[in-house]
């Protein structure tokens, strides 16, 4: 989910009443990022509290074992919490508990666990996916491919073909509500309610698509640096990461994407009502975020992994209905926060010691009334990256500026996010910005010094080093 797809954040189309209410009665972090913006590395940061350099996931690679000594659910379980995940985990092995007492799994359509010729039987989605088993009990022979949509087909959309209650979004909330019924009432609980949508396939129930399909949807933003020629017209393909997509198809995809977000919002409202019925609403701290965004045609680009705002910047809302943490309700924080900050934040809120392995920080010091006048020290910048072939990139942002370096070509980009929030102008060659660019380049040189890929010798950035998706210490 993109950072800007909240009505409270000023989006002209998207309606998110329940998330808006969480923000109005909580704190919204407007400069939240996923430092390595794709499913696997983002979840590694969330579950370990570690930057990509420590957790070793610097790109997307499936079927690499997850062996971490301390995880968010594991630490909470050791402290006496009843822990459960419902929905997407995207770890390996697929049913790796990662410290949870139980997982009710739906990872969505992942190519690697559908390829029958290349995976062990016990990793095939028929074996590991709880939603698929549940759906087939109700719709014999149903499959995630029934709509003909690929899991990364960011330009194709059509409405969900079954009753809404059978949609994966509804299923995630239904199973989460069932956890409230079955949990151990003598223990506090930690629930990770993990939706696959609005990640493709773009398949909202018809009622939600109807909310948006006939609206005048604003065009995606396109910078003066964006590619405009696409040999072979990649945009005509059903699955693409770049290209000029036919207008009708693009607008339907955008409508469906927004529809999926409103669908999730309404289902979150459903869960909150039941949480109140169980008497736990005032006693529950809620954190809402996303593992990455979706470029959705911005700069003629789609999907994730790239360092631009639509891909790397995410929503991040904290809510404490009982005001146990003394939050400054209704405020917006502009400090840069990241996935690695979730684990230390929730452990601190639960009164659980934060392991030494964690290099994220607790966000409460930014959100509490007691620290608004004398804010605590916070990070000066965030280093993000993603290994992705010729598009492998590193970036630095403080929420006001962004410097990007493409490691395979040496291309640089610089954006003034205050005056150019949509990244419309690449100021890398602007004479009046050379001092700032030089400064941020030196920061990146320092960040990459000593990395095994050889990107920096401490004096300069080195172009063309072979990127890896997983650092070698993960395998040791």
Automatic annotation (TrEMBL):
Q: What is its EC number?
A: 3.1.6.1
Keyword field: Hydrolase, Metal-binding
Q: Report the GO molecular function annotations.
A: arylsulfatase activity; metal ion binding
Domain Sulfatase N-terminal positions: 2-352
What GO terms fall under cellular component here?
A: cytoplasm
SUPFAM superfamilies attached here?
Alkaline phosphatase-like
Gene3D superfamilies, sorted: Alkaline Phosphatase, subunit A
Pfam families, per database record: Sulfatase (PF00884)
* EC class name: hydrolase
Family matches, as PANTHER family:
IDURONATE 2-SULFATASE (PTHR45953)
Q: Its family?
A: Belongs to the sulfatase family.
Q: What is this protein called?
A: Arylsulfatase
Protein's organism: Paenibacillus mangrovi
């Amino acid at each position: 989910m993109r950072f800007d797809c909240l009505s409270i954040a000023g989006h002209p189309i998207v309606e998110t009443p329940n998330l808006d209410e969480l923000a109005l009665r909580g704190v919204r972090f407007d400069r939240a990022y996923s430092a390595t913006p794709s499913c696997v590395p983002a979840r590694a940061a969330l579950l370990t509290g570690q930057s990509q350099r420590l957790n070793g996931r610097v790109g997307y690679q499936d079927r690499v074992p997850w062996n971490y000594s301390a995880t968010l659910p594991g630490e909470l379980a050791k402290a006496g919490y009843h822990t459960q995940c419902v929905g997407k985990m995207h770890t390996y092995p697929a049913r790796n508990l990662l410290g949870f007492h139980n997982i009710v799994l739906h990872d969505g359509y992942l190519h690697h666990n559908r390829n029958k010729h290349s995976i062990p039987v016990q990793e095939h989605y028929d074996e590991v996916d709880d939603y698929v088993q549940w759906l087939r009990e109700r719709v014999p022979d149903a499959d995630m491919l029934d709509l003909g949509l690929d899991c990364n087909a960011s330009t194709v959309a059509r409405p969900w073909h079954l009753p809404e209650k059978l949609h994966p979004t509804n299923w995630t909330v239904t199973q989460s509500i069932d956890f409230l019924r079955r949990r151990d009432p003598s223990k506090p609980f930690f629930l990770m309610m993990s939706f696959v949508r609005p990640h493709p396939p773009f398949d909202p129930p018809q009622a939600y698509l109807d909310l948006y399909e006939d609206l005048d949807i604003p065009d995606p933003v396109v910078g003066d640096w964006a590619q405009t020629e696409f040999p072979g017209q990649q945009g005509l393909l059903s699955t693409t990461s770049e290209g000029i997509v036919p207008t009708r198809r693009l607008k339907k995809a955008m409508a469906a994407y927004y529809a999926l977000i409103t669908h999730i919002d309404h289902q979150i409202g459903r869960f909150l009502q039941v949480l109140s019925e169980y008497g736990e609403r005032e006693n529950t701290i809620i954190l809402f975020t996303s593992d990455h965004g979706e470029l959705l045609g911005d700069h003629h680009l789609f999907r994730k992994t790239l360092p631009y705002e639509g891909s790397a910047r995410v929503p991040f809302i904290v809510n404490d209905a009982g005001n146990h943490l003394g939050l400054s309700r209704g405020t917006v924080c502009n400090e840069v926060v990241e996935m690695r900050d979730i684990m230390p934040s929730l452990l601190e809120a639960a009164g659980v010691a934060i392991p030494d392995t964690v290099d994220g920080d607790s966000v409460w010091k930014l959100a509490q009334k007691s620290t608004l006048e004398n804010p605590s020290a916070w990070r000066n910048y965030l280093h993000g990256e993603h290994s992705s072939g010729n598009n492998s990139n590193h970036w630095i942002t403080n929420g006001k500026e962004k410097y990007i370096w493409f490691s395979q070509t040496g291309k640089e980009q610089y954006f003034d996010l205050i005056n150019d929030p949509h990244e419309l102008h690449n100021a890398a060659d602007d004479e009046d910005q050379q001092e700032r660019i030089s400064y941020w380049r030196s920061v990146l040189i320092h960040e990459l010094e000593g990395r095994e890929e050889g990107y920096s010798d401490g004096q300069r950035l080195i172009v063309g080093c072979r990127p890896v998706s997983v650092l070698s210490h993960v395998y040791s």
